[in-house]
Specification:
CATH architecture of the largest domain: Sandwich
Strand order of the largest sheet: 1-8-3-6
Number of strands: 8
Largest sheet: 4 strands, antiparallel
Strand content: 35-45%
Distance between the termini: 68 Å
Length: 167
Amino acid sequence: MLFQYLFRTLMKNPPLVALFLMLFGTTAFTQSNVIKVKSCEDALISHQVDSLKNLFSSDGFVLMKEASITMESEFEMPVIVPLNQGSLYQFVFIGDYTSRLYEVRMFDWNEKQVVFQQKRWGDVDGNIISYPYRPQFSEFHMMKPVQVNKQKKKNLCGYVMMFKKVK
């Protein structure tokens, strides 16, 4: 009964049909393509995070954003951040200590690569990539960390932080 009423009402009003299809069509489409970011827990990474927070705060930086993220080996995890022209930022990515390769690329709004850093498992600072960045324009930037794991794990822990110099 309700279905028949809705059907007759929609058929009498073509613009309403178009709106109905747009709403339900895009909702169904967007739900199937959503990347869900899940946090993770890793005692070693938590210890490294605490140490780096202390280090950068003593250098006059303030933590602006941070997130623990569950990653899959060889897949980038895009992180979009708004940056202000002329400000000094410090970005940090910490990967799972069992991975053998860690990489971060950063792109500006025009999709121009502005940062590329890569570390390997045997490097002195191992699973941590940290770099300063001073944007030339106030705009969104995209940081894309990736890690490659020996066992091609799907639930790798990663951590990203963004600091801003205030002193």
